[in-house]
Structure formats: C-alpha cells, structure tokens
Amino acid sequence: MTAESPAGDTPESVLLDEPTTADLRAKVTEAWREFAGALADLLSGLPSGAQVDVTLDPTASGTGTAVYSVSMRVLSAGVVEALAVGNAALPPEFRMNRAAVADMVALGWSPPGVLAGSGDAFGLRSEQARSTALAAVVSRTLRDVYGAPHPAFLVYLVHDEEDEPIDAGPLGTARPEPGLEIGTGRVELSEDQLMAEVVVDEVPLDERVRTVVATMSKTTVDQLQVDADGDIGIRAGSAMVFVRVRDNPPLVDVFSPILTEVEPTEQLYVKLSELTNRMPIGRLYCAQDTVWASIPVFGRNFQAVHLMLAVQVMTGLADELDDRLHGEFGGKRFFGEGDKPTPPRSEGEHRTGMYL
C-alpha cells in the first residue's frame, strides 16, 4: 500500500474526474489543507525545544507493527528540524520501494544519514518563518508516501524537551494522543473527534459500532435496522449500505451491493479498477454477478472517527455509483424498482473471471 503510493505534483491531479466522487474527494483534499494550515500555525509559534510528533494510526491503516511518523523539533534561532521514518525502522513487508524513496527526496527530504543526527530517518531542516512550506511537505509525505487516507487517521503529540505536553489547538481532524490534556480541559473536538473520545475499550465492539451508527443516523440503538445476520442497514437513496462487525480478527466492514444481476465483462472490471484507484479509501469489485463496494475499519483499538468517515464515504459513493454504473452496465440497484439486468452477451464476447 504505502510503498506503491506515488507523490504526485499536485493534489488535484489525482482527483477522480467522475462526478460520483468529486465532492467527496474535494472534502478529503480540503481536510488535508486544513491540517497543513493548522500545522503551519502551530510550528510558527512554538518555543525552542518544542516538538510535534504526527503518526499514522497503525490500527486504523492496517499497517500492524509498521509505524509511519514524522517529528518536527524547534532548534535555536528559529530552525525547525524534521525527521521522517525510513525503511530501517519498518518491517520488511512495509518498507518503501525505490519509487517511494524517490518521492521522499523529491519532496525535499534528505536520505537517511545525510542530515547530521538524522540516523536511519529522512531529514529536513527549515525555518519557522517558512512553516507553511514545511507543513505542506509533511502533509504530502503522510498522505502521498505513507498512505494516510485522511487526516482523521493521524494522531499527534506536542511536547517540550522534558516530554511534558504543550498546550496546542487541534490540527484539523487529526486526533491528539489519548489522554492528552489541552489547556485547562479537553481539547475542543469536532463531532467526529468527540465520538472517538466517548467510546471506551471496555464496551464490546458491536455495541460501540451501533452507538456510532445510531448517533450518525440521529436515532437510538434500538431503532436501528438490523437484519438476521446482525448487519446494520442504512438506506442511501437507491442504494443500501451495511455495517457488519467481525470478531476474528476484530473488523468492521462497511459495504454495499452496488448492482446485482450485472454481466461481469472486461469493460466492467476495467471501470471498477479505475474507480478503485481514484477512491480516497475503500475498493470496488465484482463477485459473480454483483458489484460490491467495501471499506474496512479495524476493530483493534477502535476509533469511532474511522467508522464515521467510512460510513460517510460509503453512503455518498453507493447512492451515486449505483445510478452511474447501472446506466452504463445495466443490472439492478438495491432500491431500483423496475431495473432490468443487462441482456445476455453473445457467446463470442470475451468474459473474465473474478475481479478480486
């Protein structure tokens, strides 16, 4: 995942040109801009010796023991030194390939060991007066090279030379490390972050999931639509989104049957592959005669903000994509009364097997 993520020249160059996800992708891009802006403001005002650590939450990103992080420390005379994790600190299966290393260098990072004191990490020195440019580099590193799909998947800590926490405002939708006190009370959180704070580890995962979905749906847990398999159903226009909790391993699957009774042609697989590559998170695939959309949320150290983001993404995508794909490939939408499947293809027309 991470090793294959390119660092493009402009964020807009990777936006999906389909209207189906244009608004969603714009929101994700705006979230990264807000994060970078907040980080720049923070760096510009920190005293000498202060440090900011930003980490991609491994329990949410599926990177296991691989920890992708960037640390920024204010030195004397307004110099800021940034260190970004290198391959020596990563498990073999999560190490960056040559293209990703080249992307790091292109962003302005010195290879490990080049900057004095950087050790096995990529190094970069800038000035507090240029905090906007530095914050942009850090943001693109986390997103384009390390593979963070959204700032909500980041955790951060601001501290002094003695590792004592420093009062700091929120960095967009990134989350302060658990238990961090900001000022005289808890940091003022967005709705997403507040939900992440109120759930506790002692509560079973399925109960926490129901609480999050009920809160998003502005209803009670008892009023949720739950089928015989225990899946929570959420109607999104002509589509249906399901939320399923799995125990082993702990996982929450947010998925939707976009189309059923669809003819699995090579053109369909190509389209699904293109859309998947441009989606901010999740994937589209065809299993037999059904097109599915799926976004997994890791249940270990569950964070409600990740589930909320997945549900928001899926409900928006499913309602738009089922209409667009139905118009192009036929099949039946979940609530598409009167939909007809695609007419059978001629025997000489090429068909392929399972997409994934």
From TrEMBL:
Any Pfam family the entry gives: TY-Chap3
InterPro entries, A to Z: TY-Chap_M (IPR054343), TY-Chap_N (IPR054344)
Organism: Actinoplanes regularis
Ranges where the record places region Disordered: 1-20, 332-356
This protein's name: Uncharacterized protein
Signal peptide: none
TY-Chap central domain residues: 205-336
Source taxon at top rank: Bacteria
Upper taxonomic lineage: Bacteria, Bacillati, Actinomycetota, Actinomycetes, Micromonosporales
